């Protein structure tokens, strides 16, 4: 659940508080702790600390979408000017978390909008996290061994960014597509996801 706009003192809010608010916005876009009772803040902070550096030219579009998340969805929701966003974030590079959140929103709005099923932005996000093998990284598990948890997440994300996963996406990709005849390591993220969701629709009656 997003932080209520009415509870924020906009006259006194600082730039670090704007950045914290943005993180809470991203987190709440795909997590509702009031329903799940599970926190994943350490995982999200780590994903937000890793820069998204695309290898394929087409994946630069994912970085653009991720960077624009703060200017579009976040700024629009809280009615924050671009000048304030620029002051708060400067030229910060796009993070992996921003890419995954922006991609989830893009999937929902452009490919999987459904009156029948409602907003499934969180579902697409957690499908990617599950495919990466990170769905078990709750704060409870993280706090058992924070150093090991951070190391694990960083290594998995590096495999994803360097495209060192298997042919079909297993072993460190946000998409796993066992039936593919193509090497996913050579295919841009949006095309991978489009193929995966076409398969999802055919097997789950996913769009009405």
Tell me about this structure.
The protein is mainly alpha-helical and 208 residues long. The protein has one domain (5-204). It has helices spanning 15-30, 33-36, 41-49, 60-68, 70-78, 82-89, 96-110, 121-132, 139-142, 146-162, 189-204. The radius of gyration is 17 Å and the shape is globular.
Short key terms for the protein model shown above:
57% helix; mainly alpha; 208 residues
List the helices and strands and how they pair.
Layout: H1 15-30, H2 33-36, H3 41-49, H4 60-68, H5 70-78, H6 82-89, H7 96-110, H8 121-132, H9 139-142, H10 146-162, H11 189-204
For the secondary structure, the number of strands is 0
Q: In this structure, how is the largest beta sheet organized?
A: none
Number of helices: 11
Shape: globular
Class inferred from helices and paired strands: mainly alpha
Order of secondary-structure elements? HHHHHHHHHHH
Mean pLDDT: 91
Distance between the termini: 26 Å
| Percent range for β-strand residues | under 5%
Q: How many structural domains?
A: 1
Q: Please bin the fraction of helical residues.
A: 55-70%
**Rg for CA atoms:** 17 Å
- Low-pLDDT parts are none
């Amino acid at each position: 659940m997003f932080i209520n706009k009415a509870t924020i003192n906009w006259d006194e809010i600082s730039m670090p508080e704007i950045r914290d608010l943005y993180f809470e916005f991203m987190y709440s876009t795909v997590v509702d702790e009031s329903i799940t009772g599970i926190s994943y803040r350490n995982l999200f902070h780590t994903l937000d600390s890793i820069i998204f550096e695309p290898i394929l030219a087409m994946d630069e579009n994912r970085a653009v979408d991720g960077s624009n998340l703060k200017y579009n969805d976040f700024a629009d929701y809280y009615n924050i000017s671009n000048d304030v966003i620029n002051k708060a974030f400067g030229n910060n590079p796009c993070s992996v978390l921003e890419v995954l959140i922006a991609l989830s929103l893009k999937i929902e709005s452009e490919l999987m909008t459904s009156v029948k099923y409602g907003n499934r932005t969180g579902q697409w996000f957690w499908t990617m996290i599950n495919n990466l093998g990170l769905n078990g990284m709750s704060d409870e598990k993280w706090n058992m061994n924070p150093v090991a948890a951070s190391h694990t997440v960083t290594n998995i994300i590096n495999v994803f960014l360097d495209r060192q996963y298997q042919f079909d996406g297993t072993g460190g990709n946000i998409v796993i597509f066992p039936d593919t005849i193509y090497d996913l390591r050579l295919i841009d993220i949006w095309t991978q996801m489009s193929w995966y969701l076409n398969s999802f629709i055919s097997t789950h009656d996913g769009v009405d």
